[in-house]
Amino acid sequence: MLIVLRGNSGSGKTTTAKLLRDKMLEKDKGQKIALIEEDYLRRIVLKEKREKPQLDNIGLIEQTINFCLSHGYHIILEGILWTKQYEIMLKTLHDDIENSYFYYFDIPLAETLKRHATKPNAHEFGEKEIRDWHHDKDFLKFVREKVITADQSQSEIIEMILSDTSAA
């Protein structure tokens, strides 16, 4: 199973991904669940800038997902994952993985700025970068993503995803 959480910086994807994984492990302690963070692979592992026209992390994400799937893991992939740069890879994964679920965090810029201020890495980049990176309604074209909005609580989001994926 593949669960993809996409959206702008500061929208709540990472927090949701970590809580979702914990809840899934609570339900089934024997289940293997890999959490793959775009930012970690891009910024930490590869030290790659988002501004590059060709991003090496895209291939690394796809290879990591395929490795984990071949070893019996469910996957939670989270990141900004801009359509312009990641759509081809995401479509390939969607087409190859029968149980794939896509969610888009459609959070207004003002709210993402507030949320960013509470992040542990808030000192690494500020309002200017958040504004530059913000893309409204960056929906994928090949799949209807379930939209997550600012008025949904963290527990509502987790319960929705668990409900959507429980038959998988």
Word description of this protein:
The protein is of the alpha/beta class. It has a single domain, classed as Rossmann fold, CATH 3.40.50. Helices cover 47% and strands 18% of the residues. The chain has seven helices and five strands, in the order E-H-E-H-H-E-H-E-H-H-E-H. The protein has a five-stranded parallel beta sheet with strand order 2-3-1-4-5, with helices on both faces. Helix 1 crosses helix 7. The mean pLDDT is 89.
Topology:
Elements: E1 2-7, H1 13-27, E2 32-37, H2 38-45, H3 56-70, E3 73-79, H4 83-96, E4 100-106, H5 109-116, H6 127-133, E5 146-149, H7 154-165
Parallel strand pairs: 1-3, 1-4, 2-3, 4-5
Number of separate strands = 5
What is the multimeric organization of the chains shown? single chain
CATH class: Alpha Beta
Tell me the strand order in the biggest sheet: 2-3-1-4-5
CA gyration radius, whole angstroms: 15 Å
Outline:
This protein is an alpha/beta fold and 168 residues long. The chain has seven helices and five strands; from the N terminus they run βαβααβαβααβα.
Keywords:
single chain; 168 residues; alpha/beta; Rossmann fold; five-stranded parallel β-sheet; 7 helices; 47% helix; 18% strand; globular
